[in-house]
Design a protein that fits this description.
This protein is an alpha+beta fold. The protein is built from seven helices and twelve strands. The protein has a five-stranded mixed sheet with strand order 6-7-8-9-12, sandwiched between helices. Strands 2-4-3 form a three-stranded antiparallel sheet. A two-stranded parallel sheet has the order 1-5. The chain is extended.
């Protein structure tokens, strides 16, 4: 995948990595891909990687980004991504011939050396700027002019002239570089070995797809006891407006759940939203209008794509 700074589209469809066929988690490792999906497709996910400088904290997290099953399903249905078996693809890709393996190691060492040189150069520039601000000159620049000075008679109180020496050469130690992406340097996994779509509830996916098509951003809503926290824009700029929960069209609901949801949403200055796919007469004879074909990894489209949503607010608080 080419580095694009989040400005242009990566190579599509892009791989979403499932650690193995037994681990149902879906990860992205490339920050350019994460930025592009967030900016152009309202895909948030959750960062789960610890920071190297502070591995004991869990407030500020980094790559990889874990996607919700609904986000993965939406991206695959749109043809933007496919699910790759991360373990198997790495095993297959790392069986390189000896010459290619040595070339790969050489490229990694070269990147580490280039990084070290850039850091040393930056430090030297910063030192020069500090000396310039203090109206001082580097000693080795004055050393060339020391021999050109006029001979003067040393007085009784004159200080002896000190001979300025050249600075010691700087030894550059290459950084141990760890690539942040696997593709490149190794080839991306084949789409033919794509894994099946994740198992998601038909009602929650219908609600997610409806809100996503309306331009909302959605993150997991576990913090507020709901399925999704719904934002009108990027969460870096907006607070969430809704606490969304999905339900089947003819699902019975306890009145206490409605009261509790409304009170919870009003207590955190949001609206409690409930929604689901509209059931039509054509759906009566079907068991699940949005069922999943796990063998082929294809979701069957429901007979009706209409989704209705309702907001509940508690007026007594």
């Amino acid at each position: 995948m080419t580095s694009n700074g989040g400005l242009s589209a990566p190579d599509l469809p892009l791989p979403i990595f499932q650690p193995s066929s037994l681990v149902k988690r879906y990860l992205l490792y490339d920050i350019d891909t994460v930025t592009w999906l967030r900016r152009n497709h309202n895909i948030l996910g959750v960062f789960i990687g610890s920071l190297p400088q502070s591995p004991q904290q869990n407030v500020f997290l980094g790559l990889p980004l874990e996607l919700q099953p609904e986000e993965v399903t939406l991206l695959v249905e749109k043809g933007l991504a496919y699910i790759a078996d991360d373990l198997q693809s790495h095993k297959d890709a790392l069986l390189l011939p000896p010459m290619e393996l040595e070339e790969y190691k050489s490229n990694v060492r070269k990147k580490g050396l280039d990084t070290a040189k850039a850091v040393v150069k930056q430090k030297q520039q910063k030192t020069e700027e500090i000396l310039k601000r203090k109206s001082l000159r580097r000693p080795y620049l004055d050393a060339d002019k020391a021999d050109d000075r006029d001979d003067r008679d040393e007085g009784l109180f004159d200080l002896p002239q000190q001979k300025l020496s050249e600075p010691a050469p700087i030894t550059i130690i290459p950084y141990r570089s760890t690539p942040t992406t696997s593709y490149p340097p190794i080839d991306a996994p084949s789409q033919q070995s794509s894994l099946p779509l994740p198992e998601v509830s038909a009602s929650s996916y219908a609600l997610f797809k409806h809100l996503h098509a309306s331009g909302y951003f959605m993150s997991p809503g576990l913090r507020f006891g709901c399925k999704f926290s719904v934002y009108p824009g990027d969460p870096l700029r907006f607070h969430s407006h809704f606490l969304a929960t999905s339900a089947e069209w003819d699902e019975e609901m306890d009145l206490l759940d409605l009261i509790g949801g409304g009170r919870l949403g009003t207590g955190v200055k949001k609206a409690w939203l409930i929604g689901g796919a509209v059931k039509t007469d054509k759906d009566d004879g079907k068991k699940d209008s949005g069922s999943m074909d796990a063998q082929n990894g294809v979701r069957e489209k429901p007979a009706s794509s209409s989704v209705r949503t309702f907001c509940v607010e508690w007026a007594g608080m």
